[in-house]
Amino acid sequence: MQYFIFSGIFLFFEHIIHVLGTWNFYKKLGIKSCKILIPIYNVFILLKIYKRSIWWIFLLLIPLTSIILFFILWMDLIFTFLKKTKKNVFLFFLSAGLYIYYINFFKKINFFKTENIQKKEDNIGIFISLIFSFIIHTYIIQPFVIPTSSMERTLLVGDFILVSKIHYGLRMPMSPISIPFTHNNIIGNIKSYISIFQWPYFRFPSIQSMQRNDIVVFNFPKDYNHEIIDRKDHYVKRCVGLPGDLISIKKGILFVNHKKERFFFGKQQAYFIKTINIPLNIEYIRNKMDIEDIEYFGEKNNEYFYQIMLNEKKVIQIKNLFKNIIFIKKYILPIHFKEHYIFPNHFDWNRDFFGPLHIPRKGELIKLSSKNIHIYNEIFTYEKVSKFDIISKNYYKVKNNYYFMMGDNRHNSYDSRYWGFLPEDYIVGKPIFIWMSIDWDRKNPLNIFNWKFRWDRIMRTIDGKHSYLSLFFLFSFIYLIYLSFNSEKKSSI
Predict the structure, then answer these.
(1) Residue 363 · residue 243 · CB < 8 Å
(2) Distances from the Cα of 257 to the Cαs of 213, 254, 361, in angstroms?
(3) Could you give the C-alpha distances from 65 to 61, 130, 398, in angstroms and in order?
């Protein structure tokens, strides 16, 4: 259900882009405006005109195959009205199909040859489209949706992101026999792949090496429901520790190699808030300030107690808005308080007082002792080394690089503080783009009537430095001016 809803949203935006880029083409083909504006039906019209199978319409159900379908139809339209020269073909592919916008907006188009409209059906095209989209999904870019708040305020629940699989080196699939466009399960516990066949780990050279503080998508090492690495659940966290780094946390502040982490606005932590006489306006905080993680503890002697996940910017805003706040301060666990599920569970560490912990690096020799062998037990498992063989050795040579991952929502993130090191072969890719962002009811995300689009996050890079939404509106604005100018010109004639 979620897949079809999200695909429907994607298709709606594709529909708008398609209509804007092909309006004049449809008009020249004699199609009425009301028919051009109807989603899916306008695609059906082109399939009939170009004698393509109506079964191609099902390509719209999958976001990536729908892109390929529009790509093919745009080619059909362009070369119905233009000569199929090397220049036009080159410009079309160089612009990833957006050359059609230039033709639609700025060139006077007329039929070049009516014979360019295909006379016979090309049945193999659908298979080529499916294969090509599967290649993109599997080997280049994969879409994901953010389901939890562990990376707020950098990535929000309801962000739809595109993840590059080639930045850190393409990892070849390890489970070759599987249902395309699925991950590990189809429905419930029914697996989408056959685990009997498993390929060895192989990764191509990276375009760029992973940097400290990069946001990374990876397979969760502690997913015991799936044995094959690339079928384990997907997580997204920030890489705060590289191979060879020394990690420690003091009073909730991260130190890497004895240096305090750099400040960034996205980082959230738990804050205790106490008000007097009047409780906080929770509805206002949720709806107007976009703050979701709020826990109310109760009231005593006309004082109200809360725990809220905030970044420093939101702390200042709340202080300025609510004058009845007695205090607001970070909720830091005491240094001697031990969290039971903290890694490696042999020290009195917690989320706010952690380490120092050394991150293993490929090729280094680790001197083993009774004090540290429990830290590296899981590394022996990852590298398939018998613990019986390790007992007799004083040193161990590490075979792989390891990383330390943390969520930006520091007090609401299940990360390396709890499950340990991330092996390099579990890395999937780098998030590069937010193409859609929806603020939904977290208790009932499928209630589409409560959805709100976060326009300031749509079509943005992950770092928030670049937005491409304005280009979409710019094209729309230019196109409206062009249409009005054309209509005035025709009426004057």
Answers:
(1) no
(2) 14, 10, 14
(3) 8, 6, 42
Residue 437 CA to residue 123 CA, distance in Å, equals 36
Interatomic CA distance for residues 193 and 186, integer angstroms: 9
359-382: per-residue pLDDT in tens? 999 999 988 888 888 888 889 889
| Residue 414 contacts residue 150 (beta carbons within 8 Å) | yes
pLDDT at 484: 66
Residue 378 is encoded by which pair of tokens? 């899981």
Q: Would you give the DSSP letter of residue 415?
A: -
Q: Which helix (H) or strand (E) holds 273?
A: strand 269-276
Alpha-carbon span 204 to 383, nearest angstrom: 20
Tokens 């943005």 belong to residue:
460
Q: Which has the higher per-residue pLDDT, 305 or 56?
A: 305
**103's tokens:** 């033709």
Q: What percentage of the chain reaches a pLDDT higher than 70?
A: 89
Residue 345 is given by DSSP the state: S
Which of these, 267, 245, 278, lies nearest to 402 by C-alpha position? 245
**Prediction pTM value:** 0.75
> Do 423 and 402 contact (CB within 8 A), yes or no?
yes
CA distances from 141 to 196, 300, 428, 459 (A): 27, 53, 10, 16
Adjacent-strand bridge partners of 268: 409
Amino acid at 262: R
DSSP code at position 286: H
Residue that is written with structure tokens 């082109």 in the block:
46
- Mark out the alpha helices in 37-185 (DSSP H runs): 41-49, 63-81, 86-94, 99-106, 124-139
| Local structure of 402: helix, strand or coil | strand
Q: Which helix (H) or strand (E) segment is 452 a member of?
A: strand 452-453
Nearest to 300 by CA among 282, 276, 281: 276
CA distances in angstroms from 447 to 63, 159, 282, 434, listed in the order given: 21, 16, 21, 22
For the record, the structure tokens of 48 come out as 């009939």
Q: Which of 269, 440, 255 is nearest to 353 (CA)?
A: 255
Contact 462, 213 (CB under 8 A): no
Q: HSE on the CB side for 365, CA within 13 Å?
A: 4
Residues 293 and 57: their CA atoms lie apart, in Å, by 42
304: enclosing H helix or E strand? strand 303-310
Tokens representing 183 are: 């991950």
- Coil, strand, or helix at residue 20? helix
Domains of the chain: 2-136 (no CATH), 269-330 (3.30.70.3100)
Q: Are 186 and 177 in contact (CB under 8 A)?
A: no
